[in-house]
Write a structure and sequence with these properties.
The chain is of the alpha+beta class. The chain contains 12 helices and 24 strands. Flavin-adenine dinucleotide (FAD) binds next to helix 1, helix 2 and helix 12.
């Protein structure tokens, strides 16, 4: 069989390795002059390639059946990486290569592809795919390729300068597949609130929520709005809603309700003598945040806790439910992933073969499966590459 993999990214290279069995000829067509460009910048150059908590609740899709996220597949992905020489360093469940360099994963994958005899064609942009009888004609800027099976591994449309700019959706659509609307995800949120600029550069631990979804972690205030892993994990909701608000609970690990707040500050006020409310709050929070909150509440920094009267409730509300108006996300240019894509309704999730066009397969981000921040997206890219490559390359099918 002759198998063409379109895209030499994380999922495409793994798919090519698994497809290269028996006497199959496997060709990866990559539009860039190198493969795995995006993988190199993942995890700030350290490549957070998997997460120990490989479970449904970290994945989002319009489909309810994500049964490929299971322990047996988790084991297969981890065994594969150890078989190609990637030594893991696991920090709080986050898998990185022990070298702390994404190059280790990059080099191990490309070496394995080369050892198996995968042929990679660079600077080759696929323009169109047509099925003719039992074959596919893949048209590129370098001419046409005829093959028996095609794997679309073109990624989504986030961070397009790495090569993934949405072509896969066009190919899928032209071959009759439904596309779940695509939005940027794992991305910073933009706010025009006037205090935002005065907090730029501040980082703090908080519980942040949009509607009923909450995340705990480090919030980073920037000149455009909000960033940080916990914000990224809320960005798919903000992306769908457009205008919305993020509630920030700055005291989530200290107080649970107004009574416990009053008890805490009564006691702190008794123990730490001669301090104003502003000075007491500085024991808990960055002073820029303290100033913004006190200003919003109309409370003077130098006012004693005992003189706050009914302003205590206003202060409590702003400390545990500080409202930041969001006008949208920072968009695809800087988003880590695209949410949405080729609908799983049109794909057999046991093989990732199209239900509409036999012989056509999909892997990775081009499909309507998105993970949280933390190794979940590469985890799915690798797993789907293994499954699709393993299925397409099997002579018994
Ligand atoms: C800054 C950043 C940090 C990230 N950090 C992490 C992290 O730490 N952990 C994690 O799990 N995920 C992370 N991700 C997400 C992760 O990198 C992606 O989800 C993953 O790379 C998707 O793999 P893929 O194979 O589907 O697509 P990609 O890796 O995007 O590969 C797609 C390939 O297809 C090629 N291509 C596209 N169109 C064509 C065409 N028409 N013809 C030929 N070739 C084509 C592209 O050039 C590219 O090489 C991060 C993403 C970004 C942007």
């Amino acid at each position: 069989m002759k198998i063409i993999v379109i895209g030499g990214g994380a999922s495409g290279i793994v798919a090519s390795i698994f497809a290269k069995r028996h006497n199959n000829e496997v060709i990866v067509l990559e539009k860039n002059n190198k493969c795995l460009k995006k993988l190199l910048i993942t995890g700030n150059g350290k490549c957070n390639y998997f997460n120990d908590d490989f479970s449904f609740e970290h994945y989002y899709s319009s489909s309810n059946d994500l049964s490929f996220i299971n322990d047996s597949n988790k084991r297969k992905v981890l065994d594969f990486f150890s078989s190609i020489g990637v030594v893991p360093k696991v920090k709080n469940g986050y898998y990185y290569p022990n070298s702390n360099q994404s190059y280790s994963v990059h080099n191990s994958l490309l070496k394995e592809a080369s050892l198996r005899g995968v042929n990679i064609v660079y600077d080759c942009k696929v323009l169109n795919i047509v099925k003719k009888n039992d074959s596919f004609v893949v048209s590129t800027n370098n001419g046409d390729y005829i093959c028996d099976k095609v794997i679309i591994s073109t990624g989504g449309k986030s961070y397009p300068k790495t090569g993934s700019d949405g072509d896969g959706y066009l190919f899928g659509k032209s071959l009759g597949h439904k596309i779940v609307p695509v939005i940027p995800s794992l991305v910073g949120l933009v706010s025009n609130d006037k205090f935002i600029k005065s907090l730029s550069g501040v980082r703090c631990d908080a519980c942040v929520s949009i509607g009923s979804k909450s995340e705990i972690g480090e919030v980073q205030f920037t000149d455009y709005g909000l960033s940080g892993i916990c914000i990224f994990n809320l960005s798919n909701i903000a992306g769908r809603l457009g205008n919305c608000s993020v509630k920030v609970n700055f005291l989530y690990n200290f107080v649970s309700d107004f009574d416990s707040f009053c008890k805490l500050f009564d006691s702190v006020n008794n123990n730490v003598l001669g301090r104003s409310i502003g000075e007491l709050l500085e024991g808990y929070l960055n002073y820029n945040i303290v100033n913004v909150i006190l200003k919003k509440c109309g409370i003077d920094f130098s006012c004693p806790w005992s003189d706050l009267g009914n302003k205590k409730k206003v202060l409590f509300d702003n400390l545990v439910s500080f409202n930041i108006d969001i006008v949208g996300t920072r968009g695809f240019d800087v988003a880590q992933v695209s949410m949405g894509g080729i609908s799983l309704d049109d794909i057999d999730i046991n093989t990732f073969e199209s239900k509409i066009v036999p012989g056509l397969y999909f892997t990775g981000e081009v499909m309507d499966v998105t993970g949280d921040c933390g190794g979940y997206n590469l985890g799915f890219a690798f797993l789907s590459g293994m499954i699709a490559g393993g299925s397409v390359g099997d002579l018994s099918d």
